[in-house]
UniProtKB/TrEMBL annotation:
Gene3D superfamilies documented for this protein: 2.60.40.640
Organism: Papaver somniferum (Opium poppy)
Function noted in UniProt: Plays a role in vesicular protein sorting. Component of the membrane-associated retromer complex which is essential in endosome-to-Golgi retrograde transport. The VPS29-VPS26-VPS35 subcomplex may be involved in recycling of specific cargos from endosome to the plasma membrane.
Subunit structure: Component of the retromer complex which consists of VPS29 (MAG1), VPS26 (VPS26A or VPS26B), VPS35 (VPS35A or VPS35B or VPS35C), VPS5/17 (SNX1 or SNX2A or SNX2B). Component of a retromer subcomplex consisting of VPS29 (MAG1), VPS26 (VPS26A or VPS26B), VPS35 (VPS35A or VPS35B or VPS35C).
Pfam families, sorted: Vps26
InterPro entries: Arrestin-like_C (IPR014752), Vps26-related (IPR028934)
Family affiliation: Belongs to the VPS26 family.
Protein topology in the membrane: Peripheral membrane protein
GO biological process, any: intracellular protein transport
UniProt keyword Hydrolase, yes or no: no
Keywords: Cytoplasm, Golgi apparatus, Membrane, Protein transport, Transport
Protein name: Vacuolar protein sorting-associated protein 26
Amino acid sequence: MNYLIGAFKSPCHFSINFVDGRTRKQVQLKKENGQTAMVPLFRSQESIVGEVVLEPIQGKKVEHTGVKIELLGQIELYLDRGNFYDFTSLVRELDVPGDIYEKKTYPFEFSTVEMPYETYNGVNVRLRYILKVTISRSYVSNIVECQDFVVRNFTPPPSINNSIKMEVGIEDCLHIEFEYNKSKYHLKDVIIGKIYFLLVRIKIKNMELEIRRRESTGSGANTYVETETLAKFELMDGAPVRGESIPVRLFLSPYELTPTYRNTNNKFSVKYYMNLVLVDEEDRRYFKQQEIIIYRPESS
């Protein structure tokens, strides 16, 4: 039985190393098993340079029909788990068919790689970048090793960033106006605004501001939408009176936000909303929702 188990073990040790691995910024990446790992951070148009080290287990040789490394950008929809949609696919051949008897090092380079989309781990979708090394073999299964890395792309501040002014009400019962200082926010920004009560004939118990993320995958009849409430911020506790105004100051930095993604590779979108919720003394809820744009600044 031990011989059988040993037959399925990889005959060599693998490592995929980045040439600037010691100096490049590392960020946390959530793995499929729920655990996190520290991986290198890149941005679009950077070069990815490194080496692959293969070392046969003592006393074994590795017969192969070629060694290659691929740089892959993939989207996986969890409702179609196991099927990956490659939007980036680059290949470098590292070795011709032959035998490996001792430790071998293969340098590789992918120059100024276009990586247009950010790494994303959502509820129903995952976008990832990997380096995938394959040792092809004739009569037994190929040996494959993968190394994840993260891509984040920066957006300059918007040249136009209009404030948000809206009204909400119930005829002859409730009339409020809310105003936010802008409609586009960076990941570490602060939402600043004011809520004005123009007419109050309902006994309001409290008021909250929520940040919601809406993830849409698929298209047409096969569109799946998942909404998460990422933040709840109590603005008021108790009944307001006509003419009263409530200030709003909500810091975004404590929350795990991503930029807004619109129709990424025709596979998914991620949008953010501010949801103003009022609750009366009979626990009836009144709310008004407004989309905001989130972007990643150079400093994040």
